[in-house]
Amino acid sequence: MSDTLHYHFDVDGASFANAGRASVETKKLLRQLGVAPNVIRSISVAMYEGEINMVIHAHGGDADVYITEDTIIIILKDEGPGIRNVEEAMKEGFSTAPENIRALGFGAGMGLPNMKRYSDEMHIDTKVGVGTTIELWYHLNKQQ
Amino acid sequence: MAKYTHSVSIDPEKCTGCTTCLRRCPVEAIRIRDNKAVINPNSCIDCGECIRVCKHSAKHASYDQLSDLDFTKYLIALPAPSLFGQFNHMNEADHVIQGLLDMGFKDVYEVAKAAEYVTDLTRLYMNRPDVVLPAISSACPAVVRLIKLRYPTLCDQLVPVLTPYELAGKLAKERAAKEHPELDPDDIKTVFISPCPAKVSWAKSVMEGQKVYVDLVTSMNDVYMELLSKMKPEAEPSPEAASEAGVVGIGWAMTSGEAASLMNDEYLSADGIDNVIKVLDDLESGIVGQIKFVELNACSPGCVGGVLAPTNGYVARVRLHNLRKTGGMVVKPNDVSDIGDFSSGDIPDEYTEAEAFTYMPDGSPNMLSMMLAMKKAEALAEKLPKKDCGACGSPTCRAFALDVVHGEAKLEDCKIRTEME
What we know:
Chain A is α+β, with helices and mostly antiparallel strands.
């Protein structure tokens, strides 16, 4: 895909303060490109959730953004513990976040459901003990 | 759409082409070209940071000079709340009012008084069933412009009520017309005394056919010396003129003042343009929680920190606090029922902005061509030193790469790269 624009971000797992940086940077790029506001909003919400998940569960990981004229794909890849039961994780309110994280207001069990809600397609590839890769797809022409 | 009139400009005589403003501009609107700073009017939000940081006094805000005001006309001063924090040893707000009258203004309408009405109108607005929460204050024009340029999904959260200085201008003109029916309306001119360039730009950017509430805008700096010479703060007895604004309206000069006046605990307030940007990013990502109102000020600690205010903003804040405690100011705010009947809960159009807050992107209108440009720029950026030194005239290596692709800069401008090779 020679006409694909690709950006890579390291998601720093050591710091909550840095979580969200990749999504803010991505938002800026999409705005520069002239992507429709509602798509930018969805991506910034879903990607932020994904980043937070990677910090909480997986000590960070990689965020890659692929942009073509009609599709935006966000790939969030970590080498964390993996998701034991994806169906359960998709339920609103289900959370495996540790108590100290929940006390901070994170880990309310809305991460994956929100990511699905704020994307056109979501694909989860996960293996316990190996890691998780989540793809968020956005079809631009459909939403515009 | 209103043509936006910028008030910040550069004096090429004084500009040395140093990179201070280039690297401090929060919206990357500045480039150094031919060894002089140049501002991109499409991106500039008139926040005044470049004026604040320039070591060579090469940045200006343009406004109506005090010396150009025609005092033979019926001029009404509209002092911003922050003006009252500019004077040392001043125990009563009345001294400022009297001083302005002694300067030759025929009347004074305090923006702080209008601010108290704006608070009531904002409360009415927030009670509307269709309101999008959190509502975002539209009082800081630098923030409003930033949102319109860069935060498309937050535009409809801006409170569309007139700003305090616009409302002050409107009410001042109405009062003059009522008290002086003999006057030609064209001879009644309102003069806003502004602490910042953003408010100058806002007041000057009036849509065609739109009612003008603020005719002239001058700077606090400009008025300061003249006003100081007219004021007699130690005078006994107290001056004849009386301040009509209360402690609540004066509070708008300081961050949280506006939000606190709403008597609603669920608010967030922030100041300093970089902090404002962080809050806006979080608002757009939907992660601020249960907040009903957001007050954002480009300057810290609020309008008292504006670049056209002569006194250090933190010093001015202390003075305002003291004035609020001991200045004999009214505690009970002015009530909006003084100016009209709002019992239905509706806000008539005359009290709201003539133009809706709509997204006007400063980015590319053509996604495909911008994609190609950004792809080229990414490849180019890989070869750059990534020092973001600004010596090339662009604020970052990445911005430089895109400038090169757009033909606005030459690769040779990167001095470090040439040296590395």
